[in-house]
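Morning!

This is the sequence you dropped in the shared folder:
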Amino acid sequence: MFEVTERTIDKLGVPLLISDFQVDTWWTNLPHGAKDVIASYHAHGTSEQFHSEFKTDMNVERLPSGKFSTNATILLLSGIAFNILRLIGQTMLAHSEAMPARLKIKRRRCGSVIRDLVYIACKRVRHAGSVNLPGSRAGKRNIGGK
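The structure's back. Tokens below.
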């Protein structure tokens, strides 16, 4: 299987005098068609990115124990925490107007979610039968009470 890409402009948008051709070839014994195999190859980078993010942001490059059952439990709990952080990150994208505007992003890394939400300092105040967070960005928030 092969894929030929012709580029007539560079990454900055400047037109090229001579077209640039890139040829990618793959050998496979998969029973799928060429379009499916090429799409799978292009999606492989996304899979690698999630794998790298899981290892670095969840700090499981080296597992803490020599026992398989302990490491299996750590991986299971890390996977659950990773999925919760991904869900929080996707929810944050829906409310991106409240977050600092850097770039148009399609997803947030778990490390960014931890830095932006988990590491927020606040002061808990109990007064008049209610509990408030007066230092939050949204002003005074009632988080419980009578």
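Headline: The chain has three helices and five strands.

More detail when I'm at my desk.
O.
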